[in-house]
Amino acid sequence: MKIAQISPLYESVPPKLYGGTERVVSYLTEELVRQGHDVTLFASGDSKTNAKLVSLTEDALRLKDVQDPLAHHIAQMQEVIEHAHEFDVMHFHTDYLHFPFSSLLNKPHLTTLHGRLDIPDLVYVYHKFKKQPLVSISDSQRKGMPVDVNWIGTVYHGLPLDLYRKGEGDGDYVAFIGRISPEKRPDRAIQIAKEAGIKIKIAAKIDTADEDYYQRMIKQLMEQPHVEFIGEIGEDRKGEFLGKAKALLFPIDWPEPFGMVMIEAMACGTPVIAYNHGSVPEVIDKGESGFIVDNVAESVRALENIDLIDRNKVRETFEKRFSTGVMARNYMELYQSLIPSTKKLVFISKELKNQVRSLS
Q: What range(s) does the Glycosyl transferase family domain occupy (predicted)?
């Protein structure tokens, strides 16, 4: 199948450091290529992929002195329009930016929504484009959508099976990873670790928008003896960081659409202690891959019982539910549902021929 993957330009694919959407786009793109599909990736020029790369910007916008990122994305959308005839299906990861033209193209397409949807201003755009085929990254994410729209499926994120290895949790600390922001609640994580009498290591970025929050609410908490602030880390360090942790603390205070760090921890065999918000009950199997809690006291009790969680089973749960293979298979089902039945028979015929060749 000829598939277009259209990524935002803010980060490269995959991102060099933080960048959830672009990481998912990368994992999905590479898995589809591995499965033999003809994939074209529209992304920043510094992206690394085995697919065909189409880009109008040399570097990710985060790395450039860009005053108007929308200008770059509009140029990207025009490039997508000019190539649209080449594809069987087009998969957008660019929120609603493409809606005015993708709704007019006579081409199967779908959009994965990666962010929060409980924003009043979204009423206008999603009401106007209510027929756009949309994919959620959790069922919980849909609750924030202010209007009735055309949901065609939910597909959970996935990670390559060989990206992380199971760790032993022998680092005598708990981990917090992500962003220093009010909705991620690093203050809760620090308090939980303190009351449990265990060290906490914090690997997180501080966005410009969150600098004031960090200075007012978090900086003084970081000075406590049980806290070690590592800063933002990349993939090369994340596996060891999570694998040595006794648990990942995920004490969020917002309707998390998915929470990639939860499955990253699971891939390392590290159980997750997460507050019951957003996607958490869909991702965490209570008592098997972690504990779902509602307050600090419950979090401390969960830490006291963390050794009851079998790290081998945590890893097994990840492999069964959150691999790139599972993610790609679920998206392929959606792609197939969108294309005309005549083309679908052609794809099935090609797949059968490939299977016969592999057996001979």
A: 170-301
